[in-house]
Every structure is written in structure tokens, then in C-alpha cells.
Amino acid sequence: xEPLPQAQEPAAPFETHRVENQSPPFGPRxxxxxxxxxxxxxxxxxxxxxxxxxxxxxxxxxxxxxxYAVLAGGPxxxxxxxxxxxxxxxxxxxxxxxxxDRVAFHPAYHSLMDTAIRHGVAGWSWRHDHPGGxxxxxxxxxxxxxxxxxxxxxxxxxxxAVPVLRRERALAQWxxxxxxxxxxxxxxxxxxxxxxxxxxxxxxxxxGSDVRANTTVATPLxxxxxxxxxxxKWFLSAPMSDGFLMLAQAPGGLGCFLMPRVLEDGSKNAxxxxxxxxxxxxWSNASSEIELCGALAFPVGAEGRGVATILEMxxxxxxxxxxxxxxxxxxxxxxxxxxxxxxxxxxxxxLGQPLMTxxxxxxxxxxxxxxxxxxxxxxxxxxxERDPAEAAxxxxxxxxxxxxxxxxxxxFVNEAQECLGGNGYIEESLMPRLYRxxxxxxxxxxxxxIQCLDVLRALQREPETGAAxxxxxVAAGEGGSEYAQAIEHLRAALTEGAAVEPAQxxxxxxxxxxxxxxxxxxxxxxxxxxxxxxxRLGGEHGLAMGTLPSGLxxxxxxxxxxxxxxxxxx
Length: 570
Ligand SMILES: Cc1cc2nc3c(=O)[nH]c(=O)nc-3n(C[C@H](O)[C@H](O)[C@H](O)COP(=O)(O)OP(=O)(O)OC[C@H]3O[C@@H](n4cnc5c(N)ncnc54)[C@H](O)[C@@H]3O)c2cc1C
Description:
By secondary structure, the protein is of the alpha+beta class.
């Protein structure tokens, strides 16, 4: 064929334009150095613990968080891209037709799990079983959720399983290895493992919130060595975990069981991965449907105590949902501020333009309120074993916080996304991934309505929970007229056992959450407190973000959220 004639070209034929007015890359960043709100919240909650943690352990905790923040804002951000883009694949059979029931992950998934577990995201609190352990782990979990929420699912479940496993002497090695700072993805029996991860199987086709509707049957073996499970689970995330805490109907009622994936002799336990869920988001995490064909399992607690056992773990998993919602807000906010600081429109930087400043300041107020609540509840969880009032606050605060912060996260992420304009709708900006992930923390571990009804149940059955919240609210003192009025609305239900109608549960829990957040912001003298109280309590706010009233230090709020002088950590 004749070659095409060469066009008469200028010297640089493909130079059509210069790339201008795009923001520089967001990372690598030091997520600890960037985040004054996190640093303040951590220092405050650790300082208020009773008894005080040893200075050495405080310093160890701070260093662990600071060093993980550099990894999370650096290589982990890149691994997260790969782990989400190349989604887990189900390998039901090998090439010869044998069932293998395995899920293949991108290597980045394993790097994320390995790094997180080595740095304590799953096990810090159990290896540092003294005051402060849960507060430090909460900060680690918050950092991890910002960067890679998919792996946060197995990390959270592994963390939450440890206390119930610890109580079963026969399962001591499971508890010990779930708390170990070692990730070992090999398919080998637990005895040969350096560390294990744990999943949870509660939800069945006919009921998730109502786990008493479970139909999976647990039949005791005649020799007393365990149970056989027959049935199914409609959602089972992280199916490559080493063991699963399963709910099943035993002769004495619904029980909780530990089901290993690999048996002692190295053979596969008798359950099948039917398919992986095709999910809205959470793509790095595999969530499966399974069938149980006589799988061997060991009791965790007595027959009939399954719900009680699961509820013990739920306080910890709900705390992580709350931290996860706060973390999604944080990452979305940081990206929005970063972009608006560099992008110009109509001849000026976006950040200086009054309406965009209002949007970003409003988001900053919301994100700070979410984090201070999450870290306060983390302290309550930390102190729960030593202090009944803190145990009561942890009991109710995890439900209140999970409901409200996770409810707010999707709308928050969407607002932050829009700050990036069209770029915020494009995968590389991370915003679409955050947006797809955002609704999930509200759905699992008890969906929104379930949390709200649980708050009413706690107030009715455990009046000490109302007293614990009231003590938090009055600790803020006068707090201004909006605050005084807001807590007055709550007084009867919290202190006198006045019943709230179930149909009003959402409105009530929302008020409770806002009052708790305001109380914390006021007590610490946060620059966000005035804006929070006027807008969220006093009604000087619209239904959308970017509707803060005038007269607030909006520039300072944005600067506090992401200081201008800090760019990359690399
Ligand atoms: C990606 C993903 C991963 C998951 N992974 C796991 C896992 O690993 N293990 C596991 O066990 N489960 C898992 N789940 C399941 C999850 O926990 C359940 O979907 C959730 O608890 C809700 O249960 P359900 O889907 O059966 O909905 P339902 O229980 O049918 O609830 C539907 C709606 O009704 C509301 N509702 C229920 N009862 C009431 C009431 N009395 N009054 C008012 N409203 C009510 C709920 O709040 C919800 O909004 C996962 C779910 C998802 C999406």
C-alpha cells in the first residue's frame, strides 16, 4: 500500500494545548499531619481515660497511628485503586472439575490486609489490653477506612470476634491468632497459621434484621466434638476468612458457632460458595452466598444464646461503622478542599469564592462533629469494662452514632464530589468509589431503623443508658440558647423514662445525635461549635450543605480541616 503523504505540520504536531488549572495529585499525604481534628480528638479522649494509660503505651499508640497515617495516605491509596478495579473473582472449581470454592483477589488486596493487620487495625486493642487500647485502634481504623473500606470489613469482623472467642477455652488459639499482628492467607488448618481472620454469617434469605428467622440447622455430633451445619447464608462477606461466626438453630435454640474454612486434617469444610454478590460498591471486598452441607462447627456460648453472643460483637462492629462514616466524610472533605484550593473559575480560586467557602465550611463542621462523636464513643467502649456509666454510654452511643453519621455520609460525599465538578464523577478522583461505598455502613450491622428502635429499647430496658447520655449533655454547661433548648427536648426521655413512639424514633435519635455532637464540640471549645449549634440546632440552615448562616469563621474552619501549607508527604 502507498504510504499516506506526510502533512505539512508545525514543529510539534501533537501539541494542541497546555494542561492548566487542574489540581495537583492529592497524594501521597500524611493523614495524621493533615488532620488536626483527629490529633485533638485522640489527645483529648486518651487524656480523659480513667485510669490513665502508662506514658509509654500512650507514646507507642501515637507513634503507631502516625506511622500508619503515612502508609495509608501513600502506598495504601494506590493499592486501593488496584484492589477495587480488579474485583475479587469466584473460582468454584479447578481446571479438572474439583470444587475449590475459592476467591481470587488482586495482590493489592493482600498488601492492604497485611499492612493493616501488622499495624494493628484488627488487633491493637487486644494486644494492648489496657486503658487506651480501643481509642488507639479506633484512630487506626479511621485511617484505614479513609483509604480502603473494603478490607475494613474483614478487619472489623476479626477485631470484634476476639472477645467472644476468648471466652471459649477450646477456641483459645483462634482468639490468639485473630489478635496477632500477622496476616496469613494460606489455606491451612488453624494450628499451622500465624494469624487468622474471621467472618460472620447471620443474614439468611428470609431475614437479616430478624435473625431469629434463621433456618440453618446445627445438629450436635454424638461424640460431642462439634455440630454439623445445614442450610445457607444469603450474605457472607470475606469468604476467604479462616473461620466464621455463624448463627444456626440448635436443639436448645439459636446458637453461635465457629465454622473453620479448613479442617484439622487440611480438608475443606463442607460449605459451598454459590456466587459473589454484584454490589453497588465495596468492590475490593468479596461478599458471597453460601450453602452449608454439613459443615463442622464448634459452639461459641450456649445453645439459645446466639443473639446475645452476636450482640456482644455488635457494639464493636457498630463503632467501626461509625468510624467508617466519619472517615468517608474526612477523605471526601480533604479531596474537595484540595481541589478547590487549586482550581480557578471566573478568574479566582474556588476556595475564596463565598458560596464555595460556605459549602466547604459546612462540610468541615459536619466532618468534625462526626469524628468527635466517634472518638468519644471509642473511649466509652475502651472504658466499658471498668466503668458501668461508660458501658451504658457505649451501649447506646454506638447505635445513636452509627445511625446518624452513616445516614449523613452519602449526602455528604455527594456534596464533596460536586466540589470537584465533572472530575468528581470520574473514577480516578476516588469520589465515585467513596460515593458507592457510603450507603453500606448504614445498611449492615443493623440498618437505620433497627438502630433507632434499638435506642428506644435501650432507654426502656436499661435506664442507665439514658442517664449516661444525659450526663454527657449537661457536661457542656450552658452552651447557649440553641443548645439549652435542644437538650430540653430530650430530658424526659433520657431522665424520666418517657416513652418515644416507634414512629418517631428517627426524629428522636437524630436530635440525640445532634445534641451529643454539639455537647462535645462545645466542651472542647472547637471553632466548629458555634456554626454547628446555630445551623444544626438553631435552624439557621437549609436542607442542603452550603447553607451556614453568615458571621462564622468559615475560612478558619476550612484551614483547620486541611491546612494550606501541607501538600504531599513524599
Ligand atoms: C455488601 C453487604 C455485605 C454484607 N455482609 C454480611 C455478612 O458478612 N454477614 C452477614 O450476616 N450479613 C451481611 N450483610 C447483610 C446485612 O447485615 C443485612 O442486609 C442487614 O442486616 C439488613 O437485613 P436484610 O437485608 O435482611 O433486610 P431486612 O431485615 O429485610 O430489612 C429491610 C429494611 O427494613 C427495616 N426494618 C426491619 N425491621 C424493621 C422494623 N421492625 N421497623 C422498621 N423498619 C424495619 C430495616 O431497617 C431495613 O431498612 C451484608 C450486606 C451487604 C449489603
